[in-house]
Predict the 3D structure of the following.
Amino acid sequence: MKIADIQLREKPLFLAPMEDVTDASFRYVCKKFGADMMYTEFVSSDGLIRDARKSLEKLVIYEYERPIGIQIYGHIPEAMTEAAKMAEAAKPDLIDINFGCPVNKIAKRGAGSGMMREPDKMVAITESIVKNVSLPVTVKTRLGWDEDSKIIVELAERLQDTGISALTVHGRTRAQMYKGEADWTLIGKIKENPRMRIPIIGNGDIASPEQAKEAFDRFGVDGIMIGRATFGHPWIFREIRHYLDTGEKLPPMDVPERVRLAKEHLAKSIEIKGERVGILEMRRHLSCYFKGLPDFKETRLKLVTSLSPDEIYSILDYIEERWGDTETTL
């Protein structure tokens, strides 16, 4: 599969951009387990233009992450175009436009999936960005605003006509948020449209190798994007790839392997963000690596409250010693 001139393997696996999750250290881990393409956390166009520190920090990428995209969101056309130019200066492999985020503070302002209520404006913003940057531009969006306005099949053609290089579709409307099951049937209809010539990447509820295979086989997508299922489980990329290649499932990752991964992830987080911030932002990941361990509450509390790297490493050693032969739920 190719996105413009970016060559990816057949049936590539994408890491979805997720706020406060897909930072550089998590991307490092996902790349280690075989993510074919990744994205930064999504970046506010308004924040970039105002030189907001947090937004600018999200533009930092590393060579080992490539190919990687920077995703931007916003609702003001001029600001989106200017932000795309700023993102391009950070030298990613592509620029991705977020027309899919459903959270209220973004969608209610008309950004993210809020743009589904203004398809003409969505198309105009996309066209402007394509014309004003030299990198490939891609779009991530949803089926529509609600059950009565699933416009994605027609909209996909219009977005393609702006010159984008790929389209990712999450199989829910904005009204659904993340509730219920993702509906991949309309994603399949986009692929069935003989006018569509750009790669279509499906997203939504891919949490197992079997679901990934069904997405490729049943709906014909060119790639799949995995989001929430990677949280606490970044090795899902390795599991899916092995299943696609061999038809066999890998055994669950054992506790000693998870301890080693947690240590490596923590070290990378501290290396990139410094000791205090690196530890604080790792807390959301650390306990999830050991989901399902029995009688883990007290140890989990220590793991997510300590500010000492040495103490955390000691707790991780204790986890391996105490639960090393225990099966987990992931």
